[in-house]
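Possible regression after last week's pipeline update?

I re-ran a chain I had predicted before the update to compare outputs. Posting the input and the new output here so someone can diff against the archived version. Not blocking, just want to make sure nothing changed silently.
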Amino acid sequence: MELINERIKAEVENISIVDTHEHTMSETDRNEYAVDFSYLFGHYNSSDLISAGMPPRLLEAVRLPLYRYSTATRKRSRAHRIVPTPEREDMSLEERWQAMGPFWEVIQNTSYAKATLIAVRDLFNIDDLNSETYGHLSQAIADSRRDGWYNYVLKDKAGIDVSIIDVGTADVDRGLFAPVIRMDNYVAVRNRSDIDLLEEETGGEISSVATLVKVMKERLEGHLADGIVGIKSALAYERTLRFDMVTEGDAETSFNRFVSAQVEQPLWSEIKPLQDYLMHQLVQASIELDLPVQIHTGLQEGNENTITNSKPTHLINLFIEYPQAKFDLFHGGYPYMHEWATLAKNFSNAYADMAWVHLISPWVGRSLLHELVETVPGNKIMAFGGDEVTVEMAYGHSRMARQVVTRVLSEKVSEEYMKEDEAIVLARAILRDNPAALFKLKIPL
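New output (post-update):
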């Protein structure tokens, strides 16, 4: 077993990964906001800190630079998510560590924390993050604010060839990233104000469902011309993933309820038909433009959401209705992993994407990859998407993913489930070739 593991590890370490999902801030923004240890607590760690009892306003005070970044980003993207106002803005570095330290101590058992410590160790040469080292880490992070850091972390250290990135624009570094775009602001219209924003964005009046569909498709075509490689849907954060088949007439009735009648906030039962209809129209457009659709399923980042909205099985009617579409199902559907894997097994247009999974739990990653290897065709499995805002945390997650792939495939060979050369071919497929083919990336296969 040990020799098998070493050989497969060598092969896995040599694969240039295609990362299926990131939210990486631009290097320019990173060099402005990465000023101290709090930079590493701007995403998933914050959820565990709040879960452990840290007051949200205190957390925002601790990570003030990233609060300012997220505020600026929300203004640019018109994101709906609310970030609480910091408790105070004049805390010293020491005071901020003292406020966060006790909560950091109790979340260190989580895999979010483990990925953080991998990054701290490997990228900043600091063995631990504690009251003795937070100052050194803060200085090391500040010193790393330079052009070329992203290339160093993603290419040289993580061995990532290209990352598919979801940041609301196609204007990204094409040497590192390939963009997808969200159309959620078109699909998930909820009131007159949302229509007003779309009219402002498109420069024309939206007076009917047909007009809304037309401008949505035109906008998507414009993004395609800008070089997007797919569509991303994060609607599971806001609503159920069940999109019923709705007639244009019923969608028009829903539209008129809050547009013509000027109802500011209609009931969910009144707006769901319109949103459902628009999602079907978006999937049809994805087929016409040959764009895969990435869909968030399972656990929602943050705290206190409705997990049952994100069941991947809610999507079955879309798979049946649109066999020509390509659905990239995210996050292992966690905690609905078995249903998620079953969808990838049963539907030719559903792909199993393990983005975020190893960061949620390496144990879940191992268990799930074992199941996928035994149940899902090898060309439909994608084993890594960092799903991070920072390159450092993406690096930490990539280390976890390589370890999971190495261990699972070594065990499969040791159990005589597959031959060693089969395992090596599969490793390259799930870490590189499959996502490269799905998104038609122009890289060597």
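Follow-up from reviewer: compared with the archived run. The two ends are 29 Å apart (CA to CA). Marking as no regression found.
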